[in-house]
Amino acid sequence: MAALILRQQSLFWARGASHRCFSAGASHGDMVLSHPSTVDHYESSERGRIVCITSGKGGVGKTTSAASFAFGLASRGHKTCVVDFDIGLRNLDIHLGMERRVIFDFVNVLLGECTLNQALIKDKREPMMSMLAASQTRDKESLTVDGVEKVLADLSQQFDFVVLDSPAGIESGARHAMYFADDAVIVTNPELSSCRDADKMVGFISSRSRRAEMGENETKSVTQTLLITRYDPVRAEAEESLAIADIEELLGLPVVGVIPESKSILTCTNLGQPVITLGEEDQAAGAYSDMVDRFLGEKKELRYVTPEPVSFFKRIFG
To answer: How far apart are CA 211 and CA 199, in angstroms?
Structure first.
């Protein structure tokens, strides 16, 4: 059975390699998106960095995290575009409260049915942030590496950061999103199945991205970090879920943020506002703010990762 699974995976990637996309033999001399080495040094970057928010398992909070991460970057003065790669199942526009403003989408741009600027939607709360929506009616096979590369090349000339909200797993949208990434944030819940699937994504990014194809002699590897969502320190202490140290050991990645379990996340989704906009008084918002700062290089201690002390009266009266 294991041999059969490995053979199926080999055939799957071989089909992708037969196209110009994901091909290690492709010529890098004709690249539309500039060589990754042009952004390896922040102080001399020739284009914006491409950051992929991804996971192996669905429902872990990628879109929630992409919305808050992009908003946080923009609110710190970095011109940011967040792109929904989940063709056919878009949700990013709802998280940002832009669902009624979508006229053109990613696939319209790829097919030349509109210009990129026509499809970009600027956030009303934060003028430094824009969104490019996914199509709800087209198939994921509408994506091609040549087309995606051109769009990302144009976006990276306009924006400091291009945040890609990837679908889960290794289907077409996810593979196209991770292929051009300079940085990848792997989102996982503190449960074994989520971490196992996240580990697969770590391996795919390490071996199947454009940077991996070029090799370390040409450019640096994709910078991968870990974002843990829905973390409950009480359950972790009771060994009812994985602790942060367990997840770090399983995946071997540095933790860029830990987002506590919070009712405000669902509320924000329904209201169409990024969680980070709630400010420091909300734990999840504060954790997302810290995550953005760590991504930008600031050293910050993890918050909300230990159980809160139980008061005397709560111990007595419950």
So the answer is: 19
Give me the residues paired with residue 162 across strands.
Answer: 50, 81
Residue with tokens 């970095």: 78
Determine the Cα–Cα distance for residues 169 and 90; give it in Å rounded to an integer: 16
Measured from the Cβ of residue 206, the count of other Cβ atoms closer than 10 Å reads: 14
Q: Are the beta carbons of 257 and 270 closer than 8 angstroms?
A: no
Instruction: Say if residue 12's pLDDT is above 80.
Output: no
Q: Residue 1: its pLDDT value, please?
A: 42
What 3 state SS string does 54-91 have? ECCCCCCCHHHHHHHHHHHHHHCCCCEEEEECCCCCCC
pTM, 2 dp: 0.87
Q: Is 316 helix (H, G, I), strand (E, B) or coil?
A: helix
Answer whether 202's CB lies under 8 Å from 229's CB: no
Residues 263-310: pLDDT tens digits? 999 999 999 999 999 999 999 999 999 999 999 999 999 999 998 765
